[in-house]
Design brief:
heterodimer, A: Neuraminidase, eight-stranded mixed beta sheet, four-stranded antiparallel beta sheet, 26 strands, 13% helix, B: 154 residues, alpha/beta, five-stranded mixed beta sheet
Chain lengths: 359, 154
């Protein structure tokens, strides 16, 4: 009897791993480059890698920081118009950086303001900003700004610039491990992130760690998904939260260890999925090369990674380095997803926008 | 005669002309800088009556401010000093919301008034910033007797 019991336990012990459901494997997908924008015959050359946005008609908006303007391109890459020009007056732009298109409005942040244009490029209004912003999004008739040096991660403004509220707890950090760094400087590094919105929720994605915070319309935290088991991120967490920083002999603010850089460069939301555009730093760290870009597709509810999508840019046997910057996605008339990504091609020396889709 | 010829030789002549031009250029620059600064100060002197109280005054003219890289120079220090009145003049195109956000971002106390710049001050602002590529903000210190003590650009 005793022997039977022991044998049964032994058998159960042997069999039980079979009953543990295997962790669902993350799918992978490869996308091919369909074309690059702007079209060659347009003779439009970006002077920096632009952040981008798309409207419902498939027009692409690219912010060129060094030309102080927004290029509006049609689907084939033809230049439709330039929005804004260098200056400080209403409708002018100075070092524009972030962009967001919501229905019939285009929101552009520059050095000193958030300017709103209609889809035809007519200036509507602007309000001033007094902080660094790392992302701009529109949610239920409010403009959301990611302000890393503010008390909260996200600030909500009316279209007229009236501050409505702010929410999102910043990362807790021991500032004393950053010898003589200004507090703002530490905040800028740790709390910067991208904002994307669904119909009912707001998502903040940390640029440093890829953590995703999900807020409801009142700004209450609903769910938080920490990006784990990724060496790159663990490395960065240790560096930022434990090692800290110092000022080197040349007077630069440096971390006390090898800084791997930011984890994500941009994020986009479409139909229940969040897409993270991974940085060149991560590509170099994880794959040892930067020849193709990578986007992770994340489910809006579980905030789990569902799919890893590779953007194949470089032809085989070539070794171009790709520095991705901006991401925008839209659904075509045939319900196919079209992915737009801006990048710098090291070998060609060009700043481009690639249109990718599944072949 | 020989000496005069040597003195007027093409080589020497060229050197002299260049020397004279250089001196004129330097003098011009010094004069320009002097005129601009004194003009700026003189223009401010004419307009500060309403800000002259029996106390020292700090008057900020704000063209553009950014908490990380263009903060309100010395505001924290000055706002702790009870013996100084502080006023802000911001650009005309600041909306009410901009003023409110400015106040909120920089923690400007309700005691310190923020107004939009008028035409007179706008001229002064331009005068004090002429020759600069960017519009600097100005911090003007006025003493108890209504004299401009110092003008700081930031």
């Amino acid at each position: 009897m005793e022997r039977r019991i022991i044998t049964s336990f032994f058998l159960i012990f042997l069999i039980q791993p079979l009953y543990i459901p295997a962790k669902e494997k993350i799918k992978t997908e490869e996308l091919d480059l369909v074309r690059v924008l702007p079209a060659k015959e347009e003779k439009v050359y970006f002077k920096t890698t632009p952040f981008i946005a798309v409207d419902d008609s498939g027009n692409v908006y690219a912010v060129d920081n060094r030309v102080h303007t927004v290029y509006k391109l049609d689907q084939s890459g033809r230049l439709i118009q330039k929005i804004g020009r260098k200056g400080q007056g209403p409708g002018d732009l100075e070092l524009p950086s972030r962009i967001c298109v919501d229905k019939d409005k285009v929101f552009v942040s520059d050095n000193r303001a958030i300017s709103t244009f209609d889809i035809k490029g007519n200036f509507l209004n602007r309000f001033r900003k007094f902080r660094l912003i790392t992302s701009i999004a529109v949610f239920q008739n409010t403009v959301l700004l990611a302000e890393p040096t503010s008390d909260r991660l996200i600030s909500a403004y009316g279209f007229n610039g009236m501050k409505l509220n702010s929410f999102g707890q910043k990362y807790k950090i021991d500032y004393s491990i950053y010898n003589n760094w200004p507090k703002d400087h530490v905040d800028q590094m740790i709390n910067r992130g991208k904002i994307v919105c669904s119909e009912n929720f707001i998502f903040f994605i940390s640029e440093s760690f890829g953590d995703i915070f999900k807020y409801n319309e009142k700004g209450e935290l609903m769910f938080m998904k920490k990006m784990e088991d990724i060496d790159f991120i663990e490395n960065r967490r240790n560096l930022i939260f434990k090692a800290g920083g110092e000022i080197n002999r040349k007077g630069y603010y440096v971390l006390k260890g090898k800084d791997l850089g930011y984890f994500i460069n941009d994020a986009f939301y479409l139909k229940g999925k969040i897409y993270l555009l991974l940085s060149e730093n991560y590509l170099l760290f994880s794959k040892g090369n930067m020849s193709n870009a990578e986007v992770w597709q994340i489910d809006e509810d579980s905030l789990e990674i569902e799919k890893k999508i590779s953007f194949i840019i470089t032809e085989k046997n070539k070794s171009n380095k790709i520095y991705p910057r901006g991401l925008a996605i839209r659904e075509s008339e045939n319900n196919n997803l079209l992915y737009y990504m801006s990048y710098y091609d090291d070998k060609k020396g060009d700043f481009l926008i690639g249109l990718f889709k599944k072949s | 005669m020989e000496k005069l010829k040597r003195y007027l030789s093409p080589e020497k002549k060229w050197q002299k002309v260049m020397g004279a031009a250089f001196i004129i250029l330097i003098t011009g620059i010094i004069l320009n800088v002097y005129v601009y600064t004194t003009d700026c100060k003189r223009a401010i002197d004419k307009c500060i009556k309403e800000y002259v109280k029996d106390k020292r005054t700090a008057l900020y003219i704000i063209n553009d401010a950014h908490i990380e890289c263009r903060p309100c120079f010395k505001y924290d220090e000055l706002s702790r000093d009870g013996n100084i009145d502080i006023y802000f003049l911001v650009r005309k195109d600041f909306s009410d919301n901009d003023i409110e956000n400015f106040k909120d971002t920089f923690g400007i106390s309700d005691e310190h008034s923020i107004e939009r710049i008028d035409n007179e001050w706008e001229k002064i602002n331009k005068k004090c910033n002429s020759g600069n590529n960017i519009l600097y903000n100005l911090l003007i210190f006025i003493d108890e007797d209504g004299e401009v003590e110092e003008i700081r650009k930031f």
